[in-house]
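User: Please fill in residues for this 460-position structure.
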């Protein structure tokens, strides 16, 4: 294979203490000194320098439910979001198979945000010319971060839910023989990162939580909003550990694709892309729930502005330390995930022994411009408005929910036909193969094989 820059195996991303100690120590030092140094590839993990998992237990004064809602948060990944792990996994698999060469190929990262940011960081750190295809309506911070990593940007019409326009542009770019499209919506490296690394991290977190008196050592539900539907793949691993666990997918009310074949425009950036992705194991999903994008943005503003902090502490009794921590952990989709976890607790009647895990994908640093737009639209948030917004969490309803019956799961699966067979060149036989759980097991089983290939490549 060409002289390329290689990073961690799946197992090392899960357990960074298995990385060569000198490499790990240097990576931790460069996280602060030079975040653009390629050694930071070895900081792609859900764990800190002491191997503690990045998690936060939501205060029940805010959730209003007895169940424990725990957030695995991604703000401390090298790009400030966990999608860098998926981007790295997709690229390194293609390198190991000889499908990409930094001396000859330009990488194209189709995205509505965090995956494109991750691709810009990973691709440029691994020596590739990288282009991110991104809707023009995404937050200003996204564009600035991509350019700071050294990648180029192609803007397509629309915003979060305009994925077809991204596909159209990548189809045009594919005509150049030097271009390689790293499509998060179909590349199984994305699935494998979350199945193995995110899923097993959460499984191990259950024991940590039990030792702290949170839950009973098991996970009752896993909630994740779908963009590429990579993150929700962690549920496949968790259900292997706890067969009764509920996997709950989330999408915007304004674009309820799985819920009722709906469409529309919304602003929960990073999710709700108006199609069912190739890597989404819908036959294993137990429910779809929808959240209001305005409620998610108002909820984020509550958690990240002073009027909200004061109200949460003094009116609702949320510990000040928790309030200050939450101010750093969430973006819009992270708030959507928490609201979905609250709906899950209420709908399934979960109690104090139950633990629901969800994901804080990025944080407020990517949404200051969106919050500014919110203030211009709704006025500055005062104590009365902050009180009303707290009830977005406390009074979350159990509407907009469909359970994953046999019929409903088949409907979710059938929706893949229109994107993947009619538009993206998959065959009906390939689509039908995904109905068999063995197809997914075979994809999961490739993790140790890829790790062996990567370890051998590093030695050479």
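Assistant: Residues filled in for all 460 positions:
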């Amino acid at each position: 294979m060409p002289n390329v820059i290689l990073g961690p195996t799946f197992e090392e991303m899960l357990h960074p203490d298995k990385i060569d100690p000198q490499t790990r120590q240097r990576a931790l030092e460069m996280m602060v000194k030079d975040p653009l140094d390629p050694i930071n590839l070895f900081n792609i993990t859900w764990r800190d320098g002491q191997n503690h998992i990045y998690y936060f237990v939501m205060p029940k004064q805010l959730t209003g439910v007895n169940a424990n809602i725990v957030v695995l948060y991604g703000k401390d990944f090298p790009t400030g979001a966990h999608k860098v792990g998926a981007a790295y996994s997709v690229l390194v698999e293609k390198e190991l198979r000889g499908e990409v060469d930094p001396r000859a190929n330009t990488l194209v990262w189709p995205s509505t945000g965090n995956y494109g940011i991750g691709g810009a960081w990973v691709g440029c750190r691994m020596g590739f010319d990288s282009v991110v295809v991104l809707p023009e309506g995404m937050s200003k911070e996204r564009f600035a971060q991509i350019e700071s990593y050294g990648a180029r940007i192609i803007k397509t019409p629309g915003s979060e839910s305009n994925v077809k326009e991204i596909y159209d542009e990548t189809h045009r770019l594919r005509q150049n023989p030097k271009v390689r499209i790293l499509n998060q919506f179909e590349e199984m490296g994305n699935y494998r990162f979350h199945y193995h690394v995110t899923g097993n991290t959460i499984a191990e977190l259950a024991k940590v939580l039990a030792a702290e008196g949170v839950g009973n050592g098991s996970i009752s539900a896993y909630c994740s909003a779908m963009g590429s539907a990579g993150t929700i793949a962690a549920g496949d691993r968790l259900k292997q550990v706890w067969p009764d666990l509920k996997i709950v997918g989330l999408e915007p009310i304004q674009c309820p694709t799985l819920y009722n074949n709906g469409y529309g425009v919304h602003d929960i950036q990073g999710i709700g892309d108006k199609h069912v992705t190739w890597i989404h194991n819908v036959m294993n999903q137990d429910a779809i729930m929808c959240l209001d994008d305005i409620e998610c943005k108002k909820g984020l503003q509550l958690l990240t502005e002073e009027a909200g902090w004061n109200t949460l502490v003094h009116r609702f009794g949320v510990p000040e330390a928790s309030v200050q921590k939450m101010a750093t952990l969430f973006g819009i989709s992270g708030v959507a995930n928490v609201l979905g976890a609250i709906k899950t607790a209420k709908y399934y009647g979960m109690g104090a022994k139950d633990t629901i895990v969800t994901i804080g994908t990025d944080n407020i640093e990517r949404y200051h411009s969106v919050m500014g737009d919110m203030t211009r639209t709704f006025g500055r948030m005062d104590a009365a408005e902050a009180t009303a917004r707290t009830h977005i969490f406390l009074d979350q309803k159990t509407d907009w929910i469909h359970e994953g019956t046999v019929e409903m799961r088949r409907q979710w699966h059938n929706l893949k036909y229109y994107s993947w067979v009619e538009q993206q060149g998959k065959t009906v036989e390939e689509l039908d193969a995904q109905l068999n759980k063995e197809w997914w097991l075979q994809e999961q089983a490739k993790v140790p094989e890829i790790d062996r290939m990567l370890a051998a490549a590093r030695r050479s």
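For context: The radius of gyration is 21 Å.
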